[in-house]
Amino acid sequence: MSQTPTFKKCPVCLGEDYGLFQRHEELLCANCLRLLERTNNPHILYVYNDFFKNILFRYKGLGDLALHSIFLQQNLQTLKRRYKGYIIVLVPSNQEDNFRRGFAFLPWIFKSLGLPMMSPFTKQIQYKQTSSKHREDISKVIVLKEPLCLIGQKVLLVDDVMTSGHTLKTCLTLLERAKPKKLDYLVLACRKENIIQSIKLIEEGRILR
Predict the structure, then answer these.
(1) Which is it for strands 44-47 and 182-190: parallel, antiparallel or unpaired?
(2) Under 8 Å between Cβ of 5 and 159
(3) Which of 4, 96, 117, 134 could connect to 88 by a Cys-Cys bridge, CB 3.0–4.6 Å?
């Protein structure tokens, strides 16, 4: 007697379109996977399109914690191999926003890598980037408060969305002064039109790779 196939629901669209040849471990349905547009850059996982923006808002803004695992799942095994032995350093987030949402969103996303994680940065003022000039001023706001624990370590700086690259560049510059053994960075998404310019800004003057 044949068994009736069982289906799981996609956490994004709540549909059951998993397709005949979709891998068992896939979290998203075939349609949502098509909308989650990957980049060709090793430092940026996805294009920040309307679909990604909606998922991130549901996760961060509406507190849909069930979505936290989908951001790395497509690249999880590759990232685990690439960053074996690294320490994850979180880009500083707005503490008022974290308090309002009731959780810190970055640790939930990156904990699936199984790496030690720390937040050695602090903002001297609560600061939001609202213009190009404000983004350039971020170097005056962020401070590295725990540099000694990073000496000789392999460090991976992570963030969710890259807009201009100024925040990542500032954090990487501060981390390089702490003399880690290796230093890399990874962001979840960036607008397609901003990728080349943002990467160019970040890589200017970098010493460690």
Answers:
(1) parallel
(2) no
(3) 117
